[in-house]
Design goal:
The protein has helices at about 15-25, 35-45, 55-60, 70-80, 100-115, 125-135, 145-155, 170-195, 200-210, 215-225, 235-255, 260-275, 285-290; strands spanning about 5-10, 30, 50, 65, 95, 120, 125, 135-140, 160-165. By secondary structure, the chain is of the alpha/beta class. It has two domains: about 5-165, NAD(P)-binding Rossmann-like Domain (Rossmann fold, 3-Layer(aba) Sandwich); about 170-290, N-(1-d-carboxylethyl)-l-norvaline Dehydrogenase, domain 2 (Orthogonal Bundle). Strands 1, 2, 3, 4, 5, 6, 7, 8 and 9 form a nine-stranded mixed sheet that branches. It is globular, with a radius of gyration of 20 Å. It starts with a strand and ends with a helix.
């Protein structure tokens, strides 16, 4: 792969290792993070350089990647006075890995197009472990030409990188992903709680049913930790509620009924009320184990 001048904006639990994979693949990486100490930590570990604003980080980059918190953060780092697009040159590509709304994806796409810059909305699935291992699933929306140019670079941390359609299609696909996970984790919680109350050896149960139709990533990776009441890792409840709010808003707009998603979202609100906002999303089982 040809080495590229890249920039990575947002060095949280996902962005930090993702940007590291770019360096290991031979790309030149400039980083920006709102907390400058985190950017210094990244450059101490991976090399490259950091800049004081998204615009400064992006000014010489052929590809700029974002991984921030929500729609407002995307607007700030992409469209703000010191945002990436203010400095990006025609023919470059902006890739947003944030899980955000399809609305903001289309908004940034339009602003980028007006400057002659390509834009891809490219949310990811696979969690912190997927980011660290370079095995993320990346769902992409945008123009085919920009995707073809960006795909080899995204492959540095993605095991599956797929163009799903036009602007916003990546975000809509991620919404489907989160809707499915919400219902699945609640069902897994109910099954494990039922099995434990029935006096079964729940690890044996999970081993057996994990070889049949009930098998899922959540069962394989979270079932035994759920049974052991361990939740101090993984994808936080706070993040899931942010994502489900996006799903529910989109559903209200397109007429899709999301009754299970709405109920599970409220279950997560109860977890937050118990102080579990940073617990893994599999903590839904706590509400069944200890209904209070």
């Amino acid at each position: 792969m040809d080495a590229k001048q890249t920039a990575f904006i947002g060095l949280g639990v996902m962005g930090f290792p993702m940007a590291g994979h770019l360096t290991r693949a031979g790309h030149a990486v400039t980083v920006y993070n709102r907390t400058a100490a985190k950017a210094r930590q990244w450059t101490e570990k991976h090399g490259g350089r950091s800049e004081a604003t998204p615009a400064l980080a992006a000014r010489d980059a052929e590809l700029v990647m974002l991984m921030v918190g929500n729609d407002d953060d995307v607007r700030a780092v992409a469209l703000g006075k010191d945002g990436a697009l203010a400095a990006m040159k025609p023919g470059t590509i902006l890739v947003d890995h944030t899980t955000a709304s399809a609305t903001v994806a289309r908004e940034v796409h339009a602003a980028a197009k007006a400057r002659g810059v390509g834009f891809l909305d490219a949310p990811v699935s696979g969690g912190q472990a997927g980011a660290e291992n370079g095995k993320l699933t990346i769902m992409v929306g945008g123009d085919a030409e920009a995707f073809a140019r960006a795909e080899p670079v995204l492959g540095c941390y993605g095991r599956a990188v797929t163009l799903m359609g036009g602007p916003g299609a990546g975000q809509l696909t991620k919404m489907v992903n989160q809707i499915c996970i919400a219902g699945l984790v609640q069902g897994l919680s109910e099954g494990i709680n039922f099995g434990m109350r029935a006096g079964l050896d729940i690890e044996q149960v999970l081993d057996v049913i994990g070889k049949g139709a009930a098998q899922s990533w959540q069962m394989d990776n979270r079932g035994k930790t759920m049974a052991a009441d361990k939740f101090d890792f993984g994808f936080a409840v706070d993040w899931m509620r942010k994502d489900l709010a996006i799903c529910l808003a989109e559903g209200r707009g397109n007429g899709a009924a999301l009754p299970v998603t709405a109920v599970v979202d409220q279950f997560y609100a109860r977890i937050q009320a118990r102080g579990g906002g940073r617990w893994d999303t599999s903590s839904l089982i706590r509400l069944l184990r200890d209904p209070k």
